[in-house]
Amino acid sequence: MGVDLSPVLDPDPLDLRVSLAAIVHWADSHQLRLRLMEKVAFPVDDMPMFLAVNQLSYRGAMRPTDLALALGTGKANLSKIANRLQTAGLAERVPATDDERSTLLVLTPAGRAIGERIMTQAQASLEVSLADWSADDLATLRAMLARLARDTIGERWLRPDPHRPS
Protein backbone atom coordinates (compact mmCIF):
# COMPACT_ATOMS: atom_id res chain seq x y z
CA MET A 1 0.00 0.00 0.00
CA GLY A 2 1.58 3.26 -1.18
CA VAL A 3 1.40 6.71 0.25
CA ASP A 4 -0.41 9.34 -1.84
CA LEU A 5 2.10 12.15 -2.38
CA SER A 6 -0.19 14.34 -4.48
CA PRO A 7 -1.73 17.57 -3.16
CA VAL A 8 -5.32 17.41 -1.99
CA LEU A 9 -6.12 20.29 -4.32
CA ASP A 10 -5.47 19.68 -8.01
CA PRO A 11 -2.76 22.20 -8.93
CA ASP A 12 -4.77 23.66 -11.81
CA PRO A 13 -3.22 27.12 -12.45
CA LEU A 14 -6.68 28.47 -13.30
CA ASP A 15 -8.12 27.39 -9.95
CA LEU A 16 -8.67 30.60 -8.00
CA ARG A 17 -7.67 28.93 -4.73
CA VAL A 18 -4.31 27.89 -6.20
CA SER A 19 -3.65 31.39 -7.53
CA LEU A 20 -4.64 33.10 -4.28
CA ALA A 21 -2.55 30.66 -2.22
CA ALA A 22 0.48 31.31 -4.44
CA ILE A 23 0.14 35.09 -4.16
CA VAL A 24 -0.40 34.99 -0.39
CA HIS A 25 2.54 32.63 0.09
CA TRP A 26 4.77 34.91 -2.02
CA ALA A 27 3.63 38.09 -0.23
CA ASP A 28 4.07 36.45 3.18
CA SER A 29 7.49 34.95 2.45
CA HIS A 30 10.36 35.71 4.76
CA GLN A 31 12.76 36.18 1.86
CA LEU A 32 10.56 38.83 0.22
CA ARG A 33 10.29 40.68 3.52
CA LEU A 34 14.06 40.57 4.05
CA ARG A 35 14.67 41.96 0.55
CA LEU A 36 12.15 44.73 1.15
CA MET A 37 13.73 45.59 4.51
CA GLU A 38 17.08 45.91 2.73
CA LYS A 39 15.72 47.95 -0.19
CA VAL A 40 14.03 50.49 2.07
CA ALA A 41 17.06 50.67 4.40
CA PHE A 42 15.08 49.67 7.47
CA PRO A 43 17.24 50.96 10.34
CA VAL A 44 17.26 47.80 12.48
CA ASP A 45 17.34 44.07 11.81
CA ASP A 46 13.98 43.44 13.47
CA MET A 47 11.30 41.78 11.37
CA PRO A 48 8.43 42.32 13.85
CA MET A 49 9.22 46.06 13.92
CA PHE A 50 9.31 46.12 10.13
CA LEU A 51 5.96 44.36 9.89
CA ALA A 52 4.43 46.79 12.40
CA VAL A 53 5.68 49.80 10.41
CA ASN A 54 4.29 48.15 7.28
CA GLN A 55 0.84 47.69 8.85
CA LEU A 56 0.81 51.23 10.24
CA SER A 57 1.81 52.52 6.80
CA TYR A 58 -1.15 50.78 5.15
CA ARG A 59 -3.72 51.32 7.89
CA GLY A 60 -2.68 54.46 9.77
CA ALA A 61 -2.75 54.75 13.55
CA MET A 62 -3.99 51.60 15.27
CA ARG A 63 -4.94 50.40 18.70
CA PRO A 64 -2.30 47.98 19.98
CA THR A 65 -4.90 45.18 20.14
CA ASP A 66 -5.80 45.67 16.48
CA LEU A 67 -2.15 45.80 15.45
CA ALA A 68 -1.47 42.61 17.43
CA LEU A 69 -4.30 40.90 15.54
CA ALA A 70 -3.01 42.16 12.19
CA LEU A 71 0.47 40.84 13.00
CA GLY A 72 -0.80 37.55 14.41
CA THR A 73 0.82 38.10 17.79
CA GLY A 74 -0.28 38.64 21.35
CA LYS A 75 -0.73 41.87 23.30
CA ALA A 76 2.37 41.29 25.42
CA ASN A 77 4.57 40.76 22.38
CA LEU A 78 3.04 43.77 20.63
CA SER A 79 3.86 45.88 23.69
CA LYS A 80 7.52 44.84 23.34
CA ILE A 81 7.46 45.66 19.61
CA ALA A 82 5.86 49.04 20.34
CA ASN A 83 8.55 49.80 22.92
CA ARG A 84 11.28 48.98 20.39
CA LEU A 85 9.55 51.16 17.78
CA GLN A 86 9.45 54.04 20.26
CA THR A 87 13.09 53.56 21.23
CA ALA A 88 14.04 53.61 17.52
CA GLY A 89 11.97 56.77 17.00
CA LEU A 90 9.68 55.10 14.45
CA ALA A 91 6.37 55.15 16.34
CA GLU A 92 4.81 56.61 19.44
CA ARG A 93 1.78 56.00 21.59
CA VAL A 94 -0.86 58.72 21.57
CA PRO A 95 -4.27 58.95 23.26
CA ALA A 96 -7.15 57.67 21.15
CA THR A 97 -9.40 60.52 20.08
CA ASP A 98 -12.61 58.54 20.60
CA ASP A 99 -11.79 56.89 23.95
CA GLU A 100 -9.63 58.53 26.61
CA ARG A 101 -8.82 55.12 28.10
CA SER A 102 -7.26 53.84 24.87
CA THR A 103 -4.04 54.55 23.08
CA LEU A 104 -3.05 54.39 19.45
CA LEU A 105 0.28 53.48 17.96
CA VAL A 106 1.19 56.04 15.30
CA LEU A 107 4.21 56.48 13.05
CA THR A 108 6.57 59.35 13.80
CA PRO A 109 7.91 61.45 10.90
CA ALA A 110 10.89 59.05 10.70
CA GLY A 111 8.51 56.05 10.68
CA ARG A 112 6.37 57.69 8.01
CA ALA A 113 9.45 58.28 5.84
CA ILE A 114 10.23 54.55 6.02
CA GLY A 115 6.57 53.74 5.38
CA GLU A 116 6.68 55.91 2.26
CA ARG A 117 9.75 54.00 1.07
CA ILE A 118 7.94 50.70 1.72
CA MET A 119 4.89 51.87 -0.26
CA THR A 120 7.08 53.18 -3.11
CA GLN A 121 9.04 49.91 -3.31
CA ALA A 122 5.85 47.81 -3.17
CA GLN A 123 4.36 49.90 -6.00
CA ALA A 124 7.54 49.61 -8.08
CA SER A 125 7.60 45.82 -7.65
CA LEU A 126 3.95 45.58 -8.63
CA GLU A 127 4.52 47.75 -11.69
CA VAL A 128 7.33 45.43 -12.84
CA SER A 129 5.05 42.42 -12.45
CA LEU A 130 2.21 44.11 -14.35
CA ALA A 131 4.30 45.95 -16.97
CA ASP A 132 2.90 43.94 -19.89
CA TRP A 133 -0.74 44.14 -18.80
CA SER A 134 -3.16 46.27 -20.76
CA ALA A 135 -4.96 49.20 -19.14
CA ASP A 136 -8.23 47.27 -19.45
CA ASP A 137 -6.74 44.18 -17.77
CA LEU A 138 -5.38 46.33 -14.93
CA ALA A 139 -8.73 48.05 -14.45
CA THR A 140 -10.47 44.65 -14.36
CA LEU A 141 -7.92 43.27 -11.89
CA ARG A 142 -8.31 46.29 -9.60
CA ALA A 143 -12.09 46.06 -9.65
CA MET A 144 -12.20 42.30 -9.13
CA LEU A 145 -9.64 42.28 -6.31
CA ALA A 146 -11.44 45.14 -4.55
CA ARG A 147 -14.69 43.23 -4.90
CA LEU A 148 -13.10 40.00 -3.61
CA ALA A 149 -11.66 41.84 -0.61
CA ARG A 150 -14.99 43.51 0.10
CA ASP A 151 -16.98 40.29 -0.28
CA THR A 152 -14.62 38.09 1.74
CA ILE A 153 -13.27 40.44 4.37
CA GLY A 154 -15.77 43.27 4.39
CA GLU A 155 -15.83 46.98 3.72
CA ARG A 156 -13.65 47.77 6.72
CA TRP A 157 -10.84 45.36 5.91
CA LEU A 158 -8.12 48.03 6.00
CA ARG A 159 -9.38 50.03 8.96
CA PRO A 160 -9.26 49.19 12.65
CA ASP A 161 -12.56 49.20 14.50
CA PRO A 162 -12.77 52.63 16.19
CA HIS A 163 -15.36 51.36 18.67
CA ARG A 164 -13.39 48.38 19.93
CA PRO A 165 -11.35 49.15 23.06
CA SER A 166 -7.75 48.04 23.11
Report on this structure.
With 166 residues, the chain is mainly α. It has one domain: Winged helix-like DNA-binding domain superfamily/Winged helix DNA-binding domain (Arc Repressor Mutant, subunit A), CATH 1.10.10.10. It has helices at residues 16-27, 30-39, 47-59, 64-71, 75-87, 109-129, 135-152, and strands spanning 91-95, 103-107. A two-stranded antiparallel sheet has the order 1-2. α3 crosses α5 and α4 crosses α5. The model has no long low-confidence stretch (mean pLDDT 88).
What oligomeric arrangement do these chains adopt? single chain
CATH topology: Arc Repressor Mutant, subunit A
- CATH architecture, by name, is Orthogonal Bundle
Rounded to the nearest angstrom, the distance between the terminal CA atoms is: 54 Å
Domain count: 1
Sheet-strand content, in percent, reads 5-15%
CATH class: Mainly Alpha
- Please, how many helices? 7
Overall geometric form: globular
The neighbouring-strand order within the major sheet is 1-2
The number of distinct β-strands equals: 2
Taking the sheet with the most strands, its summary is: 2 strands, antiparallel
Mean pLDDT: 88
